[in-house]
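Example with several molecule types.
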Amino acid sequence: MANAGTAQKARSSVDRIVERLYDDIRHMRLLPGTRISETDIAAQFGVSRQPVRDAFNRLANMDLIIVRPKKATEVKKFSVAAIERSRFVRASVEKEVLRLAAQRCTEADGFLLDSCISLQHKAMSEGDNAGFTQLDYEFHKTLCDIARVPYAFDVIRGEKEKVDRLCMLQLSKENRMPQLVEDHEAIAEAVKAGDPEAAAAAGATHLSRLDDTIAAIRITSAAYFDDSED
Amino acid sequence: MANAGTAQKARSSVDRIVERLYDDIRHMRLLPGTRISETDIAAQFGVSRQPVRDAFNRLANMDLIIVRPKKATEVKKFSVAAIERSRFVRASVEKEVLRLAAQRCTEADGFLLDSCISLQHKAMSEGDNAGFTQLDYEFHKTLCDIARVPYAFDVIRGEKEKVDRLCMLQLSKENRMPQLVEDHEAIAEAVKAGDPEAAAAAGATHLSRLDDTIAAIRITSAAYFDDSED
DNA sequence: ACGTCAATACTTGTATACAAGAAAGAATAC
DNA sequence: GTATTCTTTCTTGTATACAAGTATTGACGT
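Resulting structure tokens for the full complex:
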């Protein structure tokens, strides 16, 4: 979990399997509720059950699959409680980051934010979806840096990834880009102005967009949500 | 060995091993840097290497041990970065909880807080260390309930446990109890008064105590800290 | 046609055996 | 005595075999 993004040199079979399954689950190629078998995956990768078993363990600890004794392992459904928790953590951290950023933003930091946003404008006008996603990450990372809490970005990214899989169900992302850029501009202005509460409020507004999206998906894709608690 | 009198739940070997090792690590019976071998643990539990291997995997995902290919697995040292991150998350979440609690605290909630604190006074005067720890958890859980974000407590408890192992190095905890109760009282007052910022500030003060403790331990027990980054 | 029951297939949990590499210790050369 | 090199041992990674339980499916009786 800690090294989800870093490129490992010596990748074992387990690493490869985890990477592949993680990607499949994240991109909803493996839908929630899908049953996956150790034997099947082992055959697909041409290895024994053992590495697959280890991989399953890792994924289970990431709460991406659920493996019960003597029952078929399956891709975990979305837990409303888990999503709420994750959203709350991200909102709390991000708001704290924005408060700190507003307090500590230097002139140079302000220019940094401006350049981030102009890049976003560029990506938006070009319809560069993937590029925009990357820039979105970088914007939030920049804010963490400005707040002098770079480690906070790890948390934000982690929580973001936890619910990212949901957003794969969303059809059009492009029509939301202008809204997001507007939000970013509001955040940047508040931070540059040194107004912590305004920055936190702008951040809250920004995050609430995702809440709406999730609420909508929850209705359209109810089958992928877990009715019981965890 | 199979069932020592009490009705055992369906705990697998892996569960038992994880539970035991987790407890040993948390209570610093297994010190950071200690090398542990799959074979050894397997022999101790009278099982094969396989369940131990699974247990190691789970613990590695919890960032409690580090297992590298062909190198001895060892109990992970304290990572300054990880501690900072964890502290930041807990502080962010707890402050957000307190803000919400202050906004949403009813009269009945206020009485709840009062009863929590009087129980803490009782445990303190009796020198009931374990009881106080439990009450401390319950106090923070109550605040989450008052804030109408009960799931936030999961996060707080999780982050708390991540650094709890550090506090095992601390000799006397009793002399800190009066300070903690004072903090709790300040928090409760601000929440009952419906003052979000005062509540958040009181919470920040409360958490800063732990930061001081950690800073002290970092010096006295430098050997247990990891110098490199992760 | 439908309900009940049993056998079968498929699931994960565990044990054992072998492979590959790293670290530590012993032996040797200087 | 010291440094270096080689061997030995210990480590985890992987493959295979067996065990135990569940779910499905088929057959059979009503």
